[in-house]
Design a protein that fits this description.
Blueprint (H helix, E strand, L loop, with lengths): L1 E8 L3 E8 L2 E4 L3 E2 L4 H18 L3 E9 L2 E2 L5 E3 L4 H4 L3 H9 L3 E5 H13 L7 E6 L3 E7 L2 E2 L36 H10 L7 H11 L3 H22 L3 E5 L10 H11 L10 E4 L6 H7 L8
Parallel strand pairs: 1-5, 5-8, 9-12, 12-13
Antiparallel strand pairs: 1-2, 2-3, 2-4, 6-7, 9-10, 10-11
Helix pairs in contact: 1-3, 4-9, 7-8
Bound molecules: zinc ion.
Amino acid sequence: MDGILGLDFGGTTLKFCLAADGQLELFDPIPTPKDAVALRLALAEVLKLVNAHKSINLTGVGIGLPGLVARGGKALFLPHLMELSTVDAAQIFQNIFKVPARFDNDANCAGMAELKEIGPCESGYEAVIGIGTGLGAAIFGPGGIAGGFSGFSGEVGHMCIERNGRRCECGRRGCWEQYCSAGSIRSQLDAAGRVDVEVEDVFRRWEVNSEFEDLVDEFCFYLGLGIANLVAILDLERVVLTGGLARCLAGVLPKVRSHYLELVEGAIVRRESEILIGSLFEFAGALGATYLWNLVDG
Ligand SMILES: [Zn+2]
């Protein structure tokens, strides 16, 4: 049976899935490899797991990477995986899987997968924001993904929103994802000595007894702010939230929407942009990576 393997390199875990014969198989994530040696080992493990699972004839591999991925697939700048920015990943994938590999930005992959589930909005102008260790977005127009001049659009997690703000792995300060991601909440918990608390628990405990009010309020403010900025630039009809952290956000969505409405220009005259939570969460990127093989132009 022919199959396509989809991989999504998150800042913390590598998610992967197999699409074969109209069926989808999701595997348990493994830690994200951070250098070339670890990458070879991780991919060999992925191949072993896939082969053990079914007798599959792999025909292609799709890969989502967190950062600047040029059209044609070369990874150029991966803030969370700097050592992988410099390796010839395409060659390593080819050597291990023995089939061609196609690369794209992870958020673009996640966006394609979410919209395949829910269908495009009426105008086509929308963004799918993936929130996990970091934050990225896929920007859509009526023709599909609006990739930009080099294919780098949607790197919104690295929009600078605070002068002299928190340091970011991209080498600068004040990036949006330093205020609005699982990674940013993790950093603040660690700094406060709360290593015992999982990021997901922050939202659960806030819903139950209003614990972590400051953390949750900051997160919601900055999510509302970022969405307001995106709507100001792109006049979006819809914003879809995905990625692992989106699982935790149903309870805070009214708070996010309220900050968004305070911060967006001309809220009273705009048609209100819909903000909703997708359905694929941490697996959106890996699933979307398999779709790189459905694209006409690759
Ligand atoms: Zn940054």
